[in-house]
Amino acid sequence: MIEVKNLTKIFEDFEAIKDVSLYINKGSIYGLLGSNGAGKTTFLKTLAGIYKEDKGEVFIDNDRVFENEKLKQRVIFIPDALYFFSSYTIEDMAKFYRDIYITWNEDRYQRLQKVFKIDFNKKIHKLSKGMQRQVAFWLTLSIMPDVLILDEPLDGLDSVMRQKVKNLLIQEVAEREITIIISSHNLRELEDLCDHIAILHEGSLLMEKDMDDLKKDIHKVQVAFREPPIEESFNKINVLYKEQRGSVMLFIVRGDREKVLTHFNGYRPLLLDALPLTLEEIFIYEMGDKGYVIENVIF
Ligand SMILES: Nc1ncnc2c1ncn2[C@@H]1O[C@H](COP(=O)(O)OP(=O)(O)OP(=O)(O)O)[C@@H](O)[C@H]1O
């Protein structure tokens, strides 16, 4: 269980994280979204104990993370820009981790070679970007961490390998109840993996929700009216976005699905359809609500 209490992180006079509080349950796969520069990497590095909190506190299983060597045995961070010692082979790196991590699992390391299929004796810096990322997962999963913090984790992996890695992560959660925190711009991927989602915007927590609740709360409504109602009628519902597409109107509406449908049914429409939004659509509309808008959104 991870608890972040009123976390603020400051670089010189710039507040990269502003008073963020949240709670991540054990066994959760928690997705972190946000525009470029929103503070995701800073947040993850503070969670991993690489950065010290300037205000507030980060706890993992009720222990402070920063400078906590014991806890760092159980918490692994895979950064977006990977780092390996130059001239090290995979086996050299494994030896290094074997010496550091008491939880290192040799059997798993050997078995995962069948998944990643890269020669142990290859020099890591001579491998492709995607292969280096495979090595990062291979070594990390051999450490058997309890908490895995991943910054843009699947970047550079091909589609087959992405699926394999996602399966390995889901298996870890199912079998060992590890906790995974993932930041990514690939919302399709987060949608498949995560049970919880948070959106950071300019260092602040914009929204934090269970994935199912998030989807229950926002709808894409397509409606064709016999006679369009007056504009003010829509003030009774929480419309985030509205667009005319020929004879059909598209609404993005927040609120209870049944209440939204009852409202539109009141006009006896010729056509009425309410569809769930994808995570990508939810992100765009939530951000649009905060002034981070893209024009002419076409789905
Ligand atoms: N070491 C640092 N020194 C000064 N400013 C920093 C440092 N690291 C990050 N920042 C600033 O903090 C803000 C948040 O950066 P961060 O890398 O956390 O964003 P991000 O959400 O991960 O962005 P992206 O999606 O583009 O990777 C940015 O304005 C960035 O310039």
UniProtKB/TrEMBL annotation:
Would you say which domain of life the source belongs to?
A: Bacteria
Matching Pfam families, A to Z? ABC_tran
Gene3D superfamilies according to UniProt? P-loop containing nucleotide triphosphate hydrolases
Q: Is ATP-binding found in the keyword set?
A: yes
Spell out the SUPFAM superfamilies in the cross-references.
Answer: P-loop containing nucleoside triphosphate hydrolases
User: Where in the numbering of this chain does the ABC transporter domain appear?
Assistant: 2-227
A molecular function (GO) held by this record is: ATP hydrolysis activity
Q: Where does this protein have coiled-coil stretches?
A: none
Classification via PROSITE patterns: ABC_TRANSPORTER_2
Q: CDD domains, alphabetically?
A: ABC_DR_subfamily_A
- Which keywords does this chain's UniProt record carry? ATP-binding, Nucleotide-binding, Transport
This chain's protein is named ABC-2 type transport system ATP-binding protein
Q: Which organism is it from?
A: Alkaliphilus peptidifermentans DSM 18978
